[in-house]
Structures are given as C-alpha cells and as structure tokens.
Design a protein that fits this description.
It is built from 6 helices and 16 strands. The protein has 266 residues and is of the alpha+beta class. The chain starts with 22 loop residues before the first strand and ends with a helix. The model is unreliable at 123-130 (pLDDT under 50).
Amino acid sequence: MLQTLVNTMPYAQPLSSIPTEGERVALPAKLFDGLVCLAPFVKRSGDQVEKWVHLINGKFYVVTNSLILEFAFGDNALPNLMFDPDIIRTLAAFDTAPQELVIGDNTFLFEWADGQELFMQGDAISGPVWFGGSKPMSDARAETVDKYWSFDDGKPVDDTARKTLRRALSAPKLHKDVYLTRKGLISRMRALKDVDGYTSEHLEPFETNATRMMRFELQAFARMIKVATQIDFQSSPVCFLHEGGRGLLVERSLGSDTPDVEVWND
C-alpha cells in the first residue's frame, strides 16, 4: 500500500528565547578571538589556577608555573570570569562571535546576532561548567606580566623558524628541558635503559639575542614559539610578543648537568 509521507517539524513555532535574569553585558568582537587563541595553552592537570582562561580587569590570561600569556581586547565592562576550555570549544563551534552575555545567579546566557543562544548553568565546585570570579592567586600571576615586563631588543620569529623549532621539539623521547645558547636550541634524548646520562644532543640553529646559556621546560618553550612574533632572551623571565598581546616564559635553574657549550660554539 502506497503512503504519502509528510515531513513534519518537531515544533510548530520557532523556539522561544531562553528566559534568564541577570546583568547583560556587550561582548567585544576580539573576546572570541582571545578565548580561541589562549585555550590551547591551558593545562589539563596541576594547579587549579592553570586549568582556566582567566578574564581579569579586561584582559585574558593563561597562567602556569612556566608560561604566562596575556591577551588584550580593548575597553569593556565585563566582570572577572574564568572560562573552561570545554566551554570555549563549544563557543568556537558556533563559528561566529556572540554579541551579548547575560550573567545571572550561577547562570550564563550567550546571545548571537542571528538569534542563537547558548545557556549554561553550573556550580562553583564540581559542576561540568564553571564560570566564577577570579581567584586572588590568578590576580597575582596576571600582575606578574607588568612586574617583570622589560622588552628591549626582541628578535623576530618568522614562520620558517617557528615550524623548524616546533618540529625539532616534537621528536619522541626528548628530555623535558631544553637549553638555549647563542648558537641555537639544544635538546637531549632521554637515557635508554641501563645507559647513564643522555644518548644524544641536538642543536637546532636559532638566531637570538641571548648572552648566556638558558634552560626552559620543553613544553613551555614549544607553546611559546607557537605564537611568539618577537622574543627578548635578555630578560628574565623571557619576554615575548604575540599577535594578541604579550607573555612571559619562565627560565629554569641551569643545574650542574648542562651541555658543553664550547662544543656547540666552535
């Protein structure tokens, strides 16, 4: 028996706007860009303050023990907030930036120009979604950028150098730290079983303004070089610029087991 199928919509009228009460704030266009830029730098484990993108006094921050990034997006009236990376990915899936945010009692409603809305609710301790006031510790770390900022003679980093260094630092079995000399960046292969020390060292040429040997956490250096446009290795912490703002790369103590610089400088 033949039947005529009728395509029926699951609802008769467009969905109504999600009702919510709270403070309504306009969102700067670059807010979306800042969240997407900084989300990859958030740590998944470790100190609680390292797991969020922080909005503090009108600027975004990612703050870790080895790397601090700042992203400025202009004047705004936004309160201090913390953004979970999973929420940032959800916002990014909309492809366009939301225009307004309604902040209620533990609720957050993003609104787009075309009528789309994203409503979230969570608690301040264990909810899957958490936006909350910035912690005093994150405030202090954000202020570190101003305290230690001394950018004097930054060296440009072009795309070729960036790709070459990131490829070198992605090799398997590298030691967790890397060393910088005036000739370039030294990485070490981790020791094999029953072998003392390191199995090899590799120098990747990299023109810098460094005046001495320096030691950095490999992952932090790789993340910094991913976005840095200029770096000043004469400051400590190391100061760098990226397209959205500035940052600090924290130097580690050299220790006694350092590469033989004379070998690489000959």
